[in-house]
Design brief:
The protein is about 20% helix and about 30% strand. The chain is α+β, with helices and mostly antiparallel strands. It binds fe (ii) ion.
């Protein structure tokens, strides 16, 4: 569990349910003052209260912890809001377009925030006919390597998984690609515009 429920989330969900602090408190057998404290950041609900609290707010514990009410989220999303999630336990890579609640190996995964490509992760992009040839001058050992390359356009995500001892390179269809990404298992996600 990498996040804990915040006061702002409890308040928002409670107000969505049109409940007063007192009404929520009664449902989960705590005082109105306790709810008020959580909402103003002066305390956290005990972990044993998460299940009854989520139930009273009409969401799952996972949703409560992630701070997202995924059933009410806006389904309209722009492809450039594509996000990558990398499981720290098994290395699984999950892609989503827009907001999503992703968990793997029992851990709720935050989206990986990209940084601009740097000197140690130089993403080289060469147009070759209708493709981009993308390469990264970077170690490819088991301990430190580029685990995937990806190209994001407004039509979707092209994704190539890489392996240690292989080459840090891939080819992507050029059409409408707006960003190229490389993920280093030690240093995180890097991006360039083609
Ligand atoms: Fe690296």
């Amino acid at each position: 569990m990498d996040r804990y429920v915040t006061g702002a989330v409890i308040r928002r969900l409670r107000e969505n349910k049109k409940m007063t602090q007192e009404e929520l408190a009664q449902q989960i057998y705590v005082s109105g003052k306790a709810v008020s404290k959580w909402e103003t950041g002066q305390g956290f609900p005990d972990i044993s209260l998460l299940e009854p609290l989520a139930e009273a707010l009409g969401i799952s514990v996972i949703e409560l912890l992630s701070g997202e009410d995924i059933r009410n989220s806006n389904p309209h999303s722009n492809i450039l809001r594509s996000k990558f999630y990398v499981c720290p336990v098994c290395g699984n890579v999950i892609r989503s377009v827009g907001e999503a609640l992703i968990s793997c190996c029992g851990v709720t995964l935050p989206p990986v925030e990209p940084e601009p490509a740097d000197d140690e992760h130089p993403i080289r992009v060469e147009p070759v006919e209708d493709e981009y040839y993308v390469s990264v001058a970077h170690p490819m050992t088991k301990a430190h390597y580029i685990t995937f390359l990806a190209a994001v356009s407004d039509q979707g995500i092209q994704f190539v998984k890489l392996y240690p001892e292989g080459n840090a390179e891939a080819r992507f269809k050029r059409a409408r690609v707006r960003r190229l990404y490389a993920y280093c298992n030690r240093h995180g996600l890097f991006e360039v515009k083609p």
